Amino acid sequence: MIVAFSVAPSGGSSTDSVHDAVAAAVRVVRESGLPNRTSSMFTEVEGEWDEVMEVVRRATEAVGAYGSRVSLVLKADIRPGHVGELDGKVERLEAAIARQEA
After folding, report:
1. Is the pTM of this model over 0.85?
2. Right CATH number for 2-101 from 3.40.30.10, 3.10.290.10, 3.90.79.10, 3.30.70.930?
3. Which tens digit of pLDDT belongs to each residue from 66-97?
4. Bridge-partner residues for 77, per DSSP?
């Protein structure tokens, strides 16, 4: 499965920036050893259900240290028996775009 998630603290300091909290969450994801990618708004992680959800839980807990509340947005693509889809889906999309441009 692939999970795309965004996690941010609230109820903490009055600053608008959440980069330190997000950095703590991304560190948890990267240290998990699971395939992952972070963009400006989401972090994607790929693996089996239990291991992915454990990483999301730990990343959410890491962000909790930065505020009294945590907001978590999560989207999952659950496709049993498929691996390497974090890159595979993007590669198929790029190939389709290239075919349409030819």
Report:
1. yes
2. 3.30.70.930
3. 988 999 999 999 999 999 999 999 999 999 99
4. 2
